[in-house]
Structures are given as C-alpha cells and as structure tokens.
Amino acid sequence: ATPTALMVGTGRGAQLGILIKGPEVLETTRKVDTIVLDKTGTVTTGKMTLLAVHTADGTDETEVLRLAGALEHASEHPVAQAVATGAAAKAGTLPTPEDFVNIPGLGVQGIVDGHAVLVGREKLLADWAMTLPVHLERAKAEAEAAGRTAIAVAWDGEARAVLEVADAVKETSAEAIRRLRSLGLTPILLTGDNQAVAEAVAAEVGIEQVIAEVMPQDKVDVVKKLQAEGRSVAMVGDGVNDAAALAQADLGLAMGTGTDAAIEAGDLTLVRGDLRAAADAIRLARKTLGTIR
Ligand code: ADP
Ligand code: MG
To answer: Which family does it belong to (predicted)?
Structure first.
C-alpha cells in the first residue's frame, strides 16, 4: 500500500464521518469477517426512559421512586439516568444518598434516608439472598419479553419493586446490519442486559446471534474466544465497559457519541454514532486497498 493511496482513503473516511487512527488500520478493516455490536448506546440510542413501576404488596410507589431515584442520580449508567429522571418527575426532589457504590454490570447500592437500598439486576438482589415476589417476577418476565429492561429495587433486606425502562433502537441500525451482512460480515449482539431483552432488540434489527448477560469485564473474553475460532473480529461499542473489548478486537470501532474511554481504545471512530458508517468504513478500506494491489 502506498502512503498516498492510504491518505486518499482516510480523507474520504473523514467525509463519511469516520476517523481512522492510522493508515495501518485500513488493512485490518479490510479483513474483518465478524462484527460484535454492543447493545445499549450502539444499536440502541442509549437514551432510556422509565416506563412503569410495579410495587410489592404494601410498598408505596413514591417511596420506591424517591429511594431508587436518589441512588441512581449518582450513577452515569443510561438505566440510572432513566430512573433518576423519571423519579424526579413523579416524586419531586430526591434525597441525597449518604453512601453510594456503583457495581459495574449489576447496579448500585447505598444508604438513602437511613435505608440500605439496592437498585439493579435481579442477580444483585440474589447476591444478597433476596428474591422477587411472584407477581413482580411475572412483571419482569413480561417486560423483558417485550424488549424492555427490568430493574429490581430492594431496601432493608426486602425486594420492593420492579421498574421498567427502555430505549429505542436507532433508526439507522437495521439498515446498517443489512449493509454489514451484504459485505459478508456476521453480526453478533453483545450485552450485559438480559437474554430476552437482547433477543427482542436483535430481532428488531435483523441480528441472529446474541450473547447476553455478559459482565463488563467478560466482554473482552467473548472477543478472544471468537478470535480463537479463527475469526477476524470487529467490535463496536460506546461504553467504558466496552473499552477492553475494543482494544482486544482486530478492529475496534468506537461511537463518537460514546465515552472517551471507548474512543481512546478504538482504532476507528464513527463520529456521528451512526452504525451505517461501520459498513462505509469496511467498504472504503476494501476499495482503497483493492485499487492498489
Ligand atoms: P450494556 O452491556 O447493555 O451496555 P451493562 O453491562 O452496563 O450494559 O449493564 C448490564 C445490566 O446491568 C443493565 O442492563 C442493567 O440491567 C444493569 N445495570 C447496570 N448498571 C445499573 C444501574 N446503575 N442501575 C440499574 N441497573 C443497572
Ligand atoms: Mg453500551
């Protein structure tokens, strides 16, 4: 590859909303055959809203929103922002937590108004030997089957509520997946979210393979495993929890709308957060290198 041809390729990249870290990136871009896509913020908008609150018998909804909202206000997770915003809208001013810990991939815990509060995946409650009452378990299953994320709320050792949050699939995602497929790539959806939610989103955008309920630190192992199968892997992500996987992938594509950690770890940035630019990047790399071989 001559430097001039590569420069032409990367200049065109900038026009398409693709920033390429160095000319050597084009070579790996050309070769990828598998594309792993993070769900939240990559395939979906990542702008979640609180849709519903299901409470345990004898639990007051406003109290759920006050305590859960107060804790989530301290977290930057898209789920947390949905809960905090929804809670503030319905329950008014939220108290300030006396203590707060973020547990990546699981949720948050802390002390609010003297109560020990947990907000997050059912697994977080299970770790503290708490289970959801049957009617909340059912509400959770129904929400997830519909593609919504169900978040459990507990305090003082008891499960108290299930919150439903959801974000929308980006308008451009389905078309992007079609284009990636037509370039011969196999798309795989990777997420820390629940299996049912992941499958609903995958079906909506035309992805057949789903790897769900993966802890943030384990996303990198999913990429390694695919590489061990002999695949050349591209990974697209936006979150802090995607950074290691982006670095491990043969080609890391970061959403320009995402976190600095993801952008630093990636080889290539999709400036506008539009997944179609991933397909453009691959086409561009093949074209640029193709003409000089
Ligand atoms: P993703 O891979 O979709 O970007 P994460 O690995 O960050 O998601 O989180 C996985 C799951 O953990 C989320 O779908 C959510 O159910 C739960 N979770 C993570 N952080 C929080 C939080 N602050 N509040 C509630 N739930 C959370
Ligand atoms: Mg994400």
So the answer is: Belongs to the cation transport ATPase (P-type) (TC 3.A.3) family. Type IB subfamily.
3-45+169-290, CATH topology level:
Rossmann fold (3.40.50)
Report the half-sphere exposure of 131 (CA within 13 A, side-chain side).
5
> Cα 182 from chain centroid?
24
User: Are 28 and 248 spatial neighbours (Cβ–Cβ below 8 Å)?
Assistant: no
Supply the pLDDT for residue 287.
87
Domain limits, the chain: 3-45+169-290, 49-166
Measured from the CB, is residue 108 less than 6 Å from ligand 1? yes
Atom of ligand 1 nearest to the CA of 103: 20
Ligand 1 near 40 CB (within 6 A)? yes
237 lines ligand 1 (CB under 6 A): no
Residue 119 near ligand 1, beta carbon < 6 Å: yes
Q: Which atom of ligand 1 is nearest to the CA of 194?
A: 14
Listed as ranges, residues in the chain with pLDDT below 70 are 1-9, 291-293
Q: How many residues does the chain have?
A: 293
- The ipTM is 0.93
- 95: which DSSP letter? P
In sequence order, the β-bridge partners of residue 99 are 111
Say what the pLDDT of residue 293 is: 43
> Which atom in ligand 1 lies closest to the alpha carbon of residue 41?
4
* Nearest Cα residue to atom 20 of ligand 1: 107
Please indicate whether the domains covering 3-45+169-290 and 49-166 agree at the CATH topology level: no
> For the domain bounded by 49-166, which CATH number is listed?
3.40.1110.10
